[in-house]
Design a protein that fits this description.
By secondary structure, the protein is an alpha/beta fold. It has helices at 16-21, 46-53, 67-78, 97-108, 122-137, 142-155, 166-170, 176-184, 207-221, 238-252, 264-270; strands at 3-9, 24-27, 30-33, 36-38, 61-63, 83-89, 113-117, 156-161, 187-194, 197-205, 230-234, 257-261, 275-280.
């Protein structure tokens, strides 16, 4: 059985210690803000990024990995004739990186390189990558690792609260009038990822009610929540994330969590104050 090299990208929001433990290699999409280009968690920390984003009128933009970078990385991996590559990519509904990887794969070696669309983002994507890493570490076959990945993809739920309407306005998702009314009335927009794309789920008046809806949705959709790893991601509000963890523990008895701050790549689109929860359905 060949050796499996597992790749992901920085949209998974996994911390370095997790990546190192399972020898997961990353492709880095970049974030541009105030005339400079950054790679989150390498050249800018999440808190540093959100501090820059707080400045009036500042807009961050992002850029996907280019074909040449992926081709070069895949070619280097293929120099070892015993290596098989699996790359789990950021959702194709949110980025073109998956399509780029498919082109690079076909240019290098389509038989030994597998590219999978995670249809996920942030720690929801990270939990799938983590499960793949654990399967590789357990010396599972390539086919078994791929089966584990698809099981997670097909069952992963992503529910998140956007901190404020400003970033939705900057990104063109809502107009200025809606953003102003939403913030004035303290409306929290609850969204989900469905078929790899961000879609609205419902609204709640105030953070407490939004957090309660988190738990109600988990109860409706989740399966064996007590015995699975729950993912929580947040932007510039660790306290809020820990409160969500506490609520989940109290209601469902969950004990295993992956909690990570949303990096600059996704933070450029959701802003500070966002909190997301990720769990598996049946």
């Amino acid at each position: 059985m060949g050796r499996i090299m597992l790749y992901a990208d920085n949209a998974c929001d996994l911390d370095k210690d997790v990546l190192d433990k399972y020898e997961i290699k990353l492709f880095y999409m970049t974030t541009m803000i105030k005339g400079r280009t950054y790679m989150d968690r390498l050249t800018i920390s999440p808190p540093e990024f959100y501090q820059l984003l707080e400045e009036p009128g500042v807009v961050a933009t992002t850029s996907q990995v280019n074909i040449a970078t992926m081709q070069r990385e895949f070619e280097e991996a293929m120099q070892d004739s015993d290596v098989e590559v699996i790359y789990v990519a950021f959702s194709s509904g949110l980025s073109g990186t998956y399509q780029t990887a498919c082109i690079a794969r076909d240019m290098v070696n389509s038989e030994r390189i597998t590219v999978i669309d995670s249809r996920s983002a942030s720690v929801g994507y990270g939990l799938t990558v983590l499960r793949a890493g654990q399967a590789v570490a357990a010396n599972r076959s390539k086919e078994e690792v791929i089966a584990e990945i698809y099981d997670n993809i097909n069952r992963m739920q992503h529910i998140f609260i956007v901190g404020n309407f400003e970033m939705l306005k900057r990104g063109g998702r809502v107009n200025s009038a809606v953003a102003m009314i939403g913030d004035l009335l303290n409306i929290k927009l609850i969204l989900q990822i469905k078929d790899g794309k961000i879609v609205p789920l419902e609204k709640a008046h105030g953070l407490k009610k939004a957090q309660k809806r988190f738990l109600d949705i988990m109860e409706q959709r989740g399966y064996d929540l007590k015995n699975q790893t729950i993912g929580i991601s947040y932007s510039y509000d660790l306290e809020g994330a820990l409160e969500v963890k506490r609520l989940v523990q109290e209601r469902f008895g969950s004990t295993e969590f992956i909690i990570s701050e949303i990096g600059a790549l996704i933070g450029a689109h959701v802003g500070a104050g966002t909190c997301a929860i990720f769990f598996l359905t049946r």
